[in-house]
Fold:
Amino acid sequence: MSMNHIRPWRNIERRPSRQIMVGNVPVGGDAPIAVQTMTNTDSGDVKATLGQIMAAAEAGADIVRVSTPDQAATQALKEITRESPVPIVADIHFHYKRAIEAAEAGAACLRINPGNIGDQKRVREVIQAAKDHGCSIRIGVNAGSLEKHLLEKYSEPCPDAMVESGLEHIKILEDNDFHNFKISVKASDVFMSAAAYQMLAEATDAPIHLGITEAGGLVSGTIKSAIGLGQLLWMGIGDTIRVSLSADPVEEIKVGFEILKSLGLRHRGVNIISCPSCARQGFDVIRTVEALEHRLAHIHTPMSLSIIGCVVNGPGEALMTDVGFTGGGAGAGMVYLAGKQSHKLSNEQMVDHIVEQVEKKAAEIQAAETSY
Ligand code: SF4
Structure:
């Protein structure tokens, strides 16, 4: 990531990893950290599954995973991969035939653990199918489904067991001269996940897929993920992320981007800086921010907007944002453009006017980028 020489305390040095391709999306190396989600429709229902993929892609998903538990699902995958605007990862658990079918159906990546496929012949067949169809593989170690011999050795799921499992799967792929893979070591326990990922980061140069599994509902899962993934990303670990929530996949994408935005690792859309509001507020901050979030969801250009209730913090925050509004007295406030005071604005006109200003600024940023 770019180094910030003026504010060195913002620098995150990413762990060097080798780069692989998931379809047309690079993962690892200096590629932007890819944000993923997973559909929760019946994968055999092409229309419903594509609907979720489209919505996730619109929200910014770089990659979407679809589970393919049976032949109906791998059959449907052909149409799904043909129509999807983003690469599709086929989620396979044990059945090697589903993996081969998914590779043939156009999956960009197979999520499968080679150690679970069965005998060597089957492993070779799956790897050959991945090679023939330009598929990558994601090894997905999960604390809840560790191999029996590791549970016997370590007596319970733990970071050492998870990493050992991951390295065993890696060895199978490398022994078959397959290097186009990434790896995850997920657990629902934040401490276990974080420790396992830190060990994994030392043990391999493969790109790392970060996730806290079964994190929970929208609020609790967001917090768990922000803590677990946040600290790993801060340490420079992680090349692609999936926030697992018992919620709509679009929410997973939004939360993923918010985590990356908070760390300055990726920027997308309008970063709204707003105060919590209090008795000093010159307008209804909470309702205004809600309305603006909704009205500005279509803007993908990275930019910042400050919406602050009063002059205590308004002018200071506006200094550092592209567009700003600070509440004042008598039902009006001040608009700031590029950190400078610009003009007064009545509270009634505020949402429409700020949307206009942000759209204008986004167009300017886009135009400046394309003229380079
Ligand atoms: S900026 Fe003003 S309105 Fe907002 S929380 Fe602070 S004092 Fe209250």
